[in-house]
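Hi there,

I know you've been waiting on this one. I reran it after we fixed the sequence typo, so this is the corrected version. Both the input and the resulting structure follow.
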Amino acid sequence: MYRIDSMYEPMVEALLAARSESKADRWMASVAFWLGRQQIYNVPEFWLALAAKITSGLDAADKEAILDQLSNKEAALVASVADWPEPPASLLAIVAGWSPEPPPVDLYAYAASKRYAVETGGIVLNTTQVMTDRASQSLITGAYNFVQANPGVLVKFKTAVGFVELTATQMTAIANVVGAHVQASFAAESAIDAAIVAGTISTKAEIDAFAWPSNGVTAPAA
């Protein structure tokens, strides 16, 4: 059966998470003031104190927008705010009683997203950062094809730290290393997919801990 108080749960969880991380956002202040006015879970003082603390940390425009909606008593709380308020034990006990089912994890999708991040995250070649996003891969492939047809030219190429001038040999070395990095990324994802099927990988942490290529390690010299 639908419970009216279930609508409060995501708001409360988000606010408690924001409080633990000392975050301040306009929507958080608005929600906390609303919870306090409605005396949700019988801890209005906490919600109002939390709302005041969040409001005090907003930029000038957002803070003014919130203050315009407050009563004199609520505005006074903002003016006199001190530390982040501690959640009451009664509220924590209520939250602890919530046990939502965790959403199922699509390990294949997670492995694909991890592969994409590694693949496009760049490599270091002889102390030079080389970008490996999809656009850079295309440019590197184009430059490689160009120097194969014109081995005597010098290629102007833009790296993460600026322009460099490359010989055909250097351009070929970069293309080979980037190509190997991309292939290794897909090979890692393929191996992980096989391990998921076999049951030897069953968590996101195990996917993260897999021997992905690069991961900030300097690529071998050409």
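Quick highlight: Residues 72 and 170 are 70 Å apart (CA to CA).

Best,
R. S.
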